[in-house]
Amino acid sequence: MTLLTPPSRSIIKSILSKEQSEGVGAKIRRSIGRPELRNHDPFLMLDEFDSDPTGGFPDHPHRGFETVTYMLEGQVQHEDFAGHKGTIGPGDLQWMTAGRGIVHSEMPVKTETRIHGLQLWINLPKEHKMCEPQYQELRDGQIPRATPQDGVTIKVIAGESYGVKSQVYTRTPTMYLDFRMEKNKAVTQTIPSTFTGFIYMLKGKAYIGDKEFEGKAHHTLTFSEDGAETVKIQTKDEDAHFVFIAGEPLKEPIVQHGPFVMNTDKEIYDTFVDYQYAKNGFERARNWRSTIA
Ligand code: FJE
Ligand code: FE
Q1: Cα 48 from Cα 13, distance rounded (Å)
Q2: Atom 12, ligand 1: which residue's CA is nearest?
Q3: Which atom of ligand 1 is nearest the CA belonging to 23?
Q4: Where does Fe cation bind (predicted)?
Q5: What is the CATH topology of the domain spanning 17-247?
Q6: What pTM was estimated for this model as a whole?
Q7: 267 known ligand binder
Q8: 119 in contact with ligand 1, CB cutoff 6 A
Q9: Whose CA is nearest to atom 3 of ligand 1?
């Protein structure tokens, strides 16, 4: 018997993300992590935030995964328990490896009118869950672009597109691409055969795979897992803006309690104790309060 690998991944699901409240009065649309899109190994969550600067995400911990904040409009301030702080503006990226522990605050700059961006949570393989925390921060101008043709711009946040490579170090092999396509364009994005992946549509319409599955704003379109090494994407009578996210599944057990993601119940229990008693990576959590929340 011969198994044929199809030329392009196809779309197996299209799920609309409606607005909901998260953090403290923040409005988000949850993509990965919503009930219909659980267990998208190695991804744990993707939130699109788009609102005025009223809500935010005051002091909270993380352990065992990475948070990737990518701003589209407006500015978010962040500050952590080790004194690391700054502002993420339009087009900027913060790739935060929480590892053994980060406590931080993420709050919109109050003078902004629109705060728009994405936060992706990527699970870490068990050998990296307790690594030292690390930040990889890139300003918009430091993120490389591929322009395979006029009217198509691909920002390469992680991975590679049309020969353009990101310098971001991914402990979990990940591709993160921001596509802006004018109408009536077609591209073919390569993807490793073993990666799972999806497109999250921000604006307009795109048509994906040989069957030209229609992707619309605020929808998550998940890729078939058939080993195909390309994804065909085209636009018709509208421009499109979307992110293309893919990664190597970890295939390890996931025990998640909110902002802590480990492999076993015991590790989650130990994490509560470490956080409560400020040890094993949470030393600086003792009596820490952010100045921005
Ligand atoms: C969190 C609830 C949360 N999406 N998008 C529980 F909302 C959060 C959290 C975020 C978050 C932060 C930003 Cl800047 C953007 C987000 C959820 O911080 F960590 C837990 N545990
Ligand atoms: Fe956070």
Answers
A1: 19
A2: 57
A3: 7
A4: 60, 62, 104, 106
A5: Jelly Rolls (2.60.120)
A6: 0.97
A7: no
A8: yes
A9: 23
